[in-house]
Specification:
InterPro entries: Lambda_DNA-bd_dom_sf, Phage_CI_N
Number of domains: 2
CATH architecture of the largest domain: Ribbon
Strand order of the largest sheet: 2-1-3-4-9-5-6-7-8
Order of helices and strands: HHHHHEHEEEEEEEE
Shape: elongated
Organism: Flavobacterium terrigena
Strand content: 25-35%
CATH class of the largest domain: Mainly Beta
Largest sheet: 9 strands, mixed
Helix content: 10-25%
Protein name: Bacteriophage CI repressor helix-turn-helix domain-containing protein
Pfam families: Phage_CI_repr
CATH superfamily of the largest domain: Umud Fragment, subunit A
Structural class: alpha+beta
Number of strands: 9
GO molecular function, one term: DNA binding
């Protein structure tokens, strides 16, 4: 997000305060767990710690579009992407969150082509071992037939868990696939997973990260 508008930081701060029902920067700084003068600095420099703000919005189920979008006029007809924070990934993977997806915070990502999309908060090192910060993996639903070499996907298996991985068919068994886990070691860990145990498959089409 680029601050072309010199007022964008101030506008986001004001919308965040309104959503949180707080009136002062001091109270907002307490909620965000930052120093009281940090918000004044953000306004002066027209910069923000987007990671802190997004994490707090996700934690409190605040619609990110209400905070970050300057113009919501045409959004009513648009498709929004639910965001699954780290603390909810286990519930999502186990299928316990399916009946309450509508309560998750959402955001509009205009470049997504697939109406079935989702964003998972993950450790960026799962995709690139050089980084160890959290990020949001923006994903579109896909199938095993549509995966090509070097695609990064998120495999959801109620039985085996949540994997950020590359996936390819097993050479010895047509009913199984091999998922590769990059653990930063010279030899990546490889796990065999049966097709029937893959409950959802999401292709990572973008990364939202804040350094």
């Amino acid at each position: 997000m680029q601050e072309n508008n010199p007022q964008i930081a101030k506008n986001i701060i004001n919308r965040l305060k309104k959503s949180l029902k707080v009136e002062t920067d001091t109270r907002l700084s307490e909620i965000l767990n930052i120093k009281p003068n940090t918000i004044s600095s953000w306004k002066k420099r027209n910069t923000l710690d987007y990671s802190k703000i997004i994490d707090k919005c996700v934690e409190l189920n605040i619609d990110l579009n209400l905070i970050f979008s300057e113009n919501l006029t045409n959004f009513e007809q648009e498709t929004f992407t639910p965001i699954v924070s780290k603390d909810l990934i286990y519930q999502y993977t186990s299928g316990k969150l399916m009946d309450s997806l509508e309560v998750l915070p959402t955001m509009k990502f205009p470049y997504l082509k697939n109406k079935e999309s989702i964003a998972f908060q993950i450790d960026k090192s799962l995709i690139d071992a050089r980084f160890n910060k959290d990020c949001f993996a923006i994903c579109e639903k896909t199938s095993l037939n549509n995966i090509i070499d070097n695609d990064i996907v998120i495999v959801i298996s109620n039985k085996l868990g949540f994997f950020v991985t590359k996936i390819k068919p097993s050479l010895g068994d047509t009913e199984k696939f091999i998922i590769s886990i990059d653990n930063g070691l010279p030899f990546n860990k490889k796990i065999s997973i049966a097709t029937k145990d893959i409950d959802e498959l999401w292709k990572v089409t973008g990364i939202l990260s804040f350094v």
